[in-house]
Target: DUF6336 family protein
Amino acid sequence: MTAPQRTGSEPVPRHVTDEDGVRLPRLRLKGVVVRGAAQGIAAVALLSVAMLFVTDHHDRETFLSVAAGLSAVSAGVGIVIGAFFWAVCSGDIRRWRDWRTVTGQTEGVTIMAPALVRTGVLALVLSPGALGLHHLVDNAAYNTWLYGS
Model:
């Protein structure tokens, strides 16, 4: 099959922006949370592969418990500060690619709010995943690939 080709000097459609050059539609909390959760699931999959490179059983358990603890703290900080920034922005939420539209000293918060919320949700999904992997490794039978050496 062949795809239709452009034949003419028609301009390529650009993204819709407002008068300040910020992309529309603005980010919504639901979309940011869903994307953060999906990235958190991918992070758990990456952590499950990374734990296999830690060969000693005790070191593997320590690695997973530290990952769970750090991600729990990151989740709390990211979600609380991000939600506060989101509330302060009063609907003026921007993407990272809208960084060039920031004109004042306080407008950076409009970009950091969704970044912190997404990172917090990612860590919120990663923490119980890492804790579950820790329990899985802890309950693994001796001399199995999951137990380690």
User: Anything to note?
Assistant: The helical segments are 29-50, 57-89, 109-138.
